[in-house]
Amino acid sequence: MSGKHQDTGRNDSNAGSNQMWGGRFAQGPSAIMREINASIPFDKALWRQDIAASKAHVAMLGAQGIVSANDAATISEGLDHVAEEYARDGVPEDWDLEDIHMTTEARLAELIGPVAGRLHTARSRNDQVATDFRLWVRDAIDQADAGLKALQLALVARAEEHAASIMPGFTHLQTAQPVTLGHHLMAYYEMIARDRSRLADARMRMNQCPLGSAALAGTGFPIDRNATAQALGFDGPTANSLDAVSDRDFALDYLMAASQVSLHLSRLAEEFIIWASQPFGFVRLPDSLSTGSSIMPQKKNPDAAELVRGHAGRVIGCATSLMITMKGLPLAYSKDMQDDKPPVFEAAGLLALSIAAMTGMVAESEFRTERMRQAAELGYATATDLADWLVREADIPFREAHHITGAAVKRAEADGVALDQLPLEVLQAIDSRIDERVYQALSIDASVASRASYGGTAPDQVKAQVARAKSRLDKE
Ligand code: ARG
Fold it and tell me: Mean pLDDT across the chain, nearest whole number?
């Protein structure tokens, strides 16, 4: 059914009127109408949720005596049968059936006959799709969370291994102060921890069941909304039927949390890209997450990291797209809202790939700690330590100490040496209050070890961060 049509708007008399809603129509929709209306090409991804929600609904209809126990059982078994077919053969795409809800109901009718028509009692596609989609987003949140936990475990393992590996810390991408690689990796652990809490927050807020809101106003049938909510793992029913069928905040909460995740992954990817470049040479990326060049044999390109960086733009685009879809819609349902699914599905797929790629990169990269150490030594990373020493040991005001240190760096730069390679006479010529004890402060090891404030870069502090993280992850 998914061929391209030729006509543009003429009635297609062969189509007849729609079997689900065509009662008041003399003619069927044109080919263009059928194509623009059909969401089955993408919303078939909701089939598991659609079956689960229908089963919860019909069980409730049976329990409430709204349909007979027999009919409820027939419908429920029929739905199981449809689910087996979908799992085995995929979901058929018939534009005339528009979406996953009508596709399933039509197949059910083929299998069990007219009793299938009782399933749609006391519900509408509006509360149906709102329920299915919430269930889908809830699963996507759970999957993202599991992936992010694996990433955190990888970060913690590498951080523990490199709690004392020294590298330059940067501000403005200029060497600032020496830090440890473990400290740097644990910074990302913290970002991911916040991302996971944002996802958990979105999950908690969205976990209310729209089913039973019907088209917009609720229903006159004596339904039990608590029963369906509970059967589907929701905390309870939504409180306002108009809101429940119109709300897509839950999808937006997810997309915004996903955007924040992808933004963090993109920054981490960017670090690996920079570190893997030859002038840096801080890391050898795993072969399994790199590609070669068809013309330059020496190249090993960080494509996976670049695509994670690229995907962040697309995920953020998905969030923007749905915000713009929603921003002008009056209550309650409008068909624009059918466009809510592609950006969510797209973002979820991109996010899962990005998380997996970065987890592999963190776990399997080879960190070239000698190169990192060298870069920290040559970058005058201990200049702040010299200034601090002058304040502490020679009682010089910090501003003056800063100035003296600047002169020492200038001299070292001119001589092409590290700060701790300047002879004492040279340092004393710059300021006579300097003595030989200064060399202790100028070593990058001493510098790093001295930054032992809570959350600081000293190896002991990094080990403490790692220990706290491990016990947090263990308790989950
Ligand atoms: N396929 C539709 C969607 O995803 C289902 C809801 C249709 N509701 C309606 N009143 N036409 O939005």
Answer: 94
